[in-house]
């Protein structure tokens, strides 16, 4: 939220389109090139949609790890001053970014009423390491601050490694995108040279089939290259 004259103003965002909407838009745009163009447009649109969702998911996971590490840092600092876990978690949650704030508030609520913190964290898949660390401290008498500090360091290392790998994979991803665009560049070059490939692709049955086959090959290449670059990212 943003502040306007001392009052919070909520910024509304349009919801992300789902797969059916993306397919419909891609098919509608491709329909200008015939039935084959509609199929090719739908396939290309779905592939682009999947790639965008995967990119958004990677960035969200990285932000989650960074937020949890920062929240745990504040939590551990409060514990080392002698604060009760419930109080320490509540104080750390005040300035924590989502979803760390929700995780810390769940810890505070469970600790305040003497409940099972591990059970309280069951609804947060990103906090499974934290739940196991809490159980370790409870069962073996390990100082809670030390265990949580180890979890924080692990999250920091994972986030740093992920950023480094993503930076190194930027080049291969860009190369894959350029290679995927070469057929379109070839069609454009053919039009400029007077060969008229668009007339063949749009006006003949064989051209319509080639449109669909070409789109499928481009999408298969993009998906395969994306799978190869994702395998090295934790």
Which key terms come to mind for this protein?
234 residues; mainly alpha; two-stranded antiparallel ribbon; 9 helices; 3% strand; elongated; disordered N terminus; membrane
Task: Describe what this molecule looks like in 3D.
The chain has 234 residues and is an all-alpha fold. The chain is built from nine helices and two strands; from the N terminus they run E-E-H-H-H-H-H-H-H-H-H. The chain has helices at residues 19-30, 34-80, 85-94, 100-112, 117-120, 128-140, 144-192, 197-203, 205-230; strands at 2-4, 7-9. Strands 1-2 form a two-stranded antiparallel ribbon. Strand 1 (2-4) and strand 2 (7-9) form a beta hairpin. It starts with a strand and ends with a helix. Keywords: Cell membrane, Membrane, Transmembrane, Transmembrane helix. This is Type II secretion system F family protein. Residues 75-188 form the Type II secretion system protein GspF domain.
């Amino acid at each position: 939220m943003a502040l306007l004259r001392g009052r919070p103003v909520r910024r509304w965002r349009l919801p992300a389109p789902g797969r059916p909407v993306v397919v419909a838009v891609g098919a509608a745009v491709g329909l200008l090139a015939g039935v084959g163009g509609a199929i090719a447009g739908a396939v290309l649109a779905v592939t682009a949609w999947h790639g965008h969702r995967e990119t958004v998911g990677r960035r969200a996971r990285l932000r989650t790890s960074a937020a949890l590490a920062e929240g745990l840092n504040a939590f551990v600092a409060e514990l080392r001053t002698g604060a009760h876990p419930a109080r320490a978690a509540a104080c750390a949650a005040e300035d924590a970014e989502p979803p760390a704030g929700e995780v810390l508030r769940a810890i505070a609520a469970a600790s305040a009423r003497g409940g099972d913190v591990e059970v309280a964290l069951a609804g947060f898949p990103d906090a499974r390491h934290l739940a196991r660390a809490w159980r370790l401290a409870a069962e073996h008498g390990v100082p809670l601050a030390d265990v949580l500090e180890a979890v924080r360091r692990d999250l920091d290392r994972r986030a740093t490694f992920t950023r480094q790998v993503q930076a190194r994979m930027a080049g291969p991803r860009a190369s894959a995108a350029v290679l995927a665009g070469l057929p379109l560049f070839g069609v454009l070059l053919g039009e400029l040279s007077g060969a008229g490939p668009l007339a063949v692709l749009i006006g003949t049955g064989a051209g319509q089939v080639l449109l669909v086959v070409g789109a499928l090959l481009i999408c298969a290449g993009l998906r395969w290259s994306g799978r190869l670059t994702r395998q090295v990212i934790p």
